[in-house]
Specification:
The chain has 76 residues and is mainly alpha-helical. The chain has one domain (11-73): 434 Repressor (Amino-terminal Domain) (Orthogonal Bundle). It has helices spanning 7-24, 29-36, 40-47, 55-65, 69-73. The protein is globular and about 35 Å long.
């Protein structure tokens, strides 16, 4: 991982990973937010890199999407 990355860049890349994983599962933001019991705007802000997601929620997201958590956390 590039240690020169800024927090903003990290959040955007993580958000993109979330969006890609969601779309690969054929889910809308609304569907995924309901499955995770979070507000739609919270998920939208995650996908656009505007806010952090807790480690607990990242684990929950990986379970809901049935993917390896490393795929969500992978940053080139």
């Amino acid at each position: 991982m590039n240690l020169d990355i800024t927090k903003e860049e990290l959040l955007k890349k993580f958000g993109l990973n979330v969006k890609i994983a969601r779309m690969k599962k054929g889910l809308t933001q609304e569907q995924l937010s309901e499955m995770m019991h979070v507000h739609l705007t919270y998920l939208a802000k995650i996908e656009t890199g505007k806010i952090n997601m807790s480690l607990g929620k990242i684990l929950e997201l990986a379970k809901v999407l049935n993917i390896d958590i490393n795929k969500l956390l992978y940053i080139e």
